[in-house]
């Protein structure tokens, strides 16, 4: 999308995430959200089509989203997966939507781990960090959905994909747009 169109959409309260989230796209999204947060009565509409696994950048956006006073709606378009699922869940209850042919996918966070020298100490530190992040990720999914801790973990390990009906049944979204 061109910048002129994105700027107009932002003025209308629309924020679009249609790629993997990296530090550059996260910064742009956060700036847009903070700008819209200056008008707390204006609804923010977040359109998400991302299956990113970038925990740190998604959590930065999540933290900003949950700190805003604005009404926030989120729309799942195509595939929303990995840590991007948390952005869908962060919208206000009753304002989380999914298009009828879209999907929600859960993942384990080990996919985030990069290569290294594999020294025992490095592996232990990395394991602790990934375990901590995975616990936060899974606890947030449990908080917003109808799933319990064991179910969330089972679905993440299986890298479960939910169609729109199942996503609604499990409370990832509130309404299917048909």
Write up this protein.
- By secondary structure, the protein is of the alpha/beta class.
- It has a single domain (3-177), classed as 2-enoyl-CoA Hydratase, Chain A, domain 1 (Alpha-Beta Complex).
- The protein has helices spanning 3-11, 23-37, 55-67, 85-89, 120-144, 149-158, 164-169; strands at residues 14-17, 44-48, 72-76, 79-81, 96-99, 103-105, 161-163, 175-177.
- The strands form two sheets. The protein has a five-stranded parallel beta sheet. A three-stranded mixed beta sheet has the order 4-6-7.
- Helix 3 (55-67) links the parallel strand 2 (44-48) and strand 3.
- The longest helix has 25 residues, at 120-144.
- The mean pLDDT is 93.
Q: What is the element layout, followed by pairings?
A:
Elements: H1 3-11, E1 14-17, H2 23-37, E2 44-48, H3 55-67, E3 72-76, E4 79-81, H4 85-89, E5 96-99, E6 103-105, H5 120-144, H6 149-158, E7 161-163, H7 164-169, E8 175-177
Parallel strand pairs: 1-2, 2-3, 3-5, 4-6, 5-8
Antiparallel strand pairs: 6-7
Helix pairs in contact: 2-3, 5-6
Quaternary structure annotation: single chain
Secondary-structure-derived class: alpha/beta
CATH architecture: Alpha-Beta Complex
Write down the CATH class: Alpha Beta
CA-based shape: globular
Strand content: 15-25%
Low-pLDDT stretches: none
The span between the termini is 25 Å
**SSE arrangement, N to C:** HEHEHEEHEEHHEHE
State the strand order across the main sheet.
1-2-3-5-8
What would the keywords be for this entry?
178 residues; alpha/beta; 2-enoyl-CoA Hydratase, Chain A, domain 1; 5-stranded parallel β-sheet; globular
